[in-house]
Design a protein that fits this description.
The protein starts with a helix and ends with a helix. Helix 4 runs antiparallel to helix 5, helix 4 packs antiparallel against helix 16 and helix 5 runs antiparallel to helix 7. The chain is mainly alpha-helical and 312 residues long. Strands 1-2 form a two-stranded antiparallel sheet. The protein is built from 16 helices and two strands. A hairpin with a 2-residue loop joins strand 1 and strand 2. It binds 3-methylbut-3-enyl trihydrogen diphosphate (IPE) (2 copies) and magnesium ion (MG) (2 copies).
Length: 312
């Protein structure tokens, strides 16, 4: 077990305990389905970011972050439950998805339930935190909707791709870091720096995630590969490759993962996406230069590197 895994382990237990408590329902299906996806694990990257952001600006009572961090993890999990319905996916966090086990309607309702429980968890917190989370939920849905409207659009440009990524993914990472800072009573400048860190890390994280859709191993990822490709969902590497190819794409290209990978290698677009992901991770780290050096800031740096380099 490395340092990053042992750090904050106690908080992780408390986090799960709080999520368990809040997702218990008189409707057994909702309790069971919620427990199923929460027990499946996940990396808990966003709660870690909230905790380390809190500590990096001088917060000394880590348990203070738990309700907001649990809400953030619930929002994220809810978005995955809904995403798996749209993707018709049957594997998530190494386990069968809720839609595959209980059906789409039950999965839709479980996702709704998790979103609402997240709001309940922070209902009595600082109104700034509630507003950030509400705005973030709106951005996630807007990003997902923009993505839906641009499926199969092979002419989507890099800026549009990045804007979708900022909305659907990076906004929640930004909120995690920002909220960690607010809970610790950080200055306005520090909170702004943390939000900037989260936003850039989130972009690196999604660029890498999109690459893993054709480079990853399902056993390691805990989810299937080729899902985005099947839906013609754009990734940075594909956006770049199609631009280089003058917008011409042979539909046969999408036949299987290996022909796409070959195309992306030939155009140099895999390298391009890999570099861009690192650029965003570097920007995330640079944003933290105004914070004093500390073990927590180091953890935040490590998470930025992880976002760009991860295989799971
Ligand atoms: C997956 O997020 C969805 C994206 C935003 C790419 P994670 O990779 O953080 O999923 P878990 O929580 O670890 O399962
Ligand atoms: C995550 O993006 C979208 C959300 C914010 C829900 P993906 O669609 O890439 O997530 P995975 O790959 O299914 O985990
Ligand atoms: Mg998906
Ligand atoms: Mg993905």
């Amino acid at each position: 077990m490395n340092l990053m895994q042992t750090e904050g382990m106690m908080e992780d237990d408390l986090l799960i305990q709080m999520i368990d408590e809040v997702t218990a329902s008189t409707i057994a299906l909702l309790t069971e389905a919620s427990e199923h996806i929460i027990r499946s694990g996940g990396k808990r990257t966003r709660p870690k970011i909230a905790l380390f952001a809190y500590e990096a600006v001088g917060g000394t009572v880590p348990a203070e972050t738990i309700p907001a961090a649990a809400a953030i993890e619930l929002i994220h999990t809810a978005s995955l439950v809904h995403d798996d319905i749209n993707d018709r996916s049957n594997l998530r966090r190494g386990q069968v998805t809720i839609n595959a086990r209980w059906g789409n309607a039950a999965a839709l309702l479980t996702g709704d339930f998790l979103f609402c429980k997240a709001m309940k968890l922070v209902a009595r917190q600082d109104p700034r935190i509630i507003e950030i989370l509400a705005d973030t939920c709106i951005r996630i849905v807007e990003g997902e909707t923009r993505q839906l409207l641009s499926l199969e659009n092979l002419e989507i440009d890099e800026e549009t791709y990045l804007e979708i990524v900022r909305q659907k993914t990076a906004s929640l990472f930004a909120a995690s870091a920002e909220i960690g800072g607010l809970l610790a009573g950080a200055s306005e400048d520090q909170v702004r720096a943390l939000a900037e860190y989260g936003l850039n890390l989130g972009v690196a994280f999604q660029i890498r995630d999109d690459m893993l859709d054709f480079l990853g191993r399902p056993e390691e990822l805990g989810k299937p590969i080729g899902t985005d490709l099947r839906q013609r969902k754009m990734s940075l590497a594909l956006v770049d490759a199609l631009q280089r190819a003058g917008g011409r794409a042979d539909q046969a290209l999408f036949r299987d993962v290996s022909s796409v990978v070959q195309f992306l290698r030939e155009t140099g677009s895999l390298e391009y996406a890999r570099d861009k992901s690192c650029v965003y991770a570097d920007r995330a780290k640079e944003a933290l230069s105004i914070l004093p050096n500390s073990p927590a800031r180091m953890r935040l740096f490590e998470l930025a590197n992880f976002a760009a380099e991860r295989n799971r």
